[in-house]
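Notes, p. 3: input format for complexes.
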Amino acid sequence: MRPTDHLTSLCAADWAAATRHAFTDALADGTLPEPLMLGYLRQDYLFVEDFTRLLGAMIAHAPSLADAVPAGQFMGLICGAENTFFQRAIAALGGDPAQPAPPHPVTVAFQALMREAAGSGRYEQMLAVLVVAEGSYLDWASPHAAKSAYLPFWFGDWIDLHAGPGFEGFVAYLRGQLDAVWTDLTPAEQHAVEERFTTAVQLERAFFDAALTGFDAA
Ligand SMILES: Cc1ncc(CN)c(N)n1
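Output follows (218 residues plus NSP):
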């Protein structure tokens, strides 16, 4: 079994819940109330800030230029099209993208996880969080890719950013990086990756649970 399949198998119920969630089902149907999407995007913009720093740390720790280039290209997407999406969508839904939301406890927990991974100095720890963050989004968004063109852009573009051959290739690259380093890790290091990975999946699930309830209600 691939190491990244082993990691997913450790938290299969949470993975399934995070990738087949009522929040994303409603988003893809276009029935998600706009205030819930706005609350989600304002919290997720806080997530993206620390995600960007984590990706930067991962690039800094990549073993070679070839190992770093796909992540460097993805950084351009995050700081380009995705950042612009947040600003456009939050404004269109009635928010102010220049006013950060008060962070919800789930967002705070996710920020802490990403900062710990980024500060660990350990490539595999950084990859554990990145594989979850991008792999879980690929899994929920891909089945809905054909619907995106018929949705308001704040739903449709969010699906498009997480589906399609380019994003599939990026997730495959992240998984390949983690798979490649796994066998050289000590049992303690592998256990630390398992902890980081399963915690990240729990938080992905909790993030969508909170988004469905309404972040602003917290
Ligand atoms: C919480 C969360 N996890 C993952 C992603 C995918 N980039 C995201 N935008 N937000």
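Residues 165 and 171 are 10 Å apart (CA to CA).
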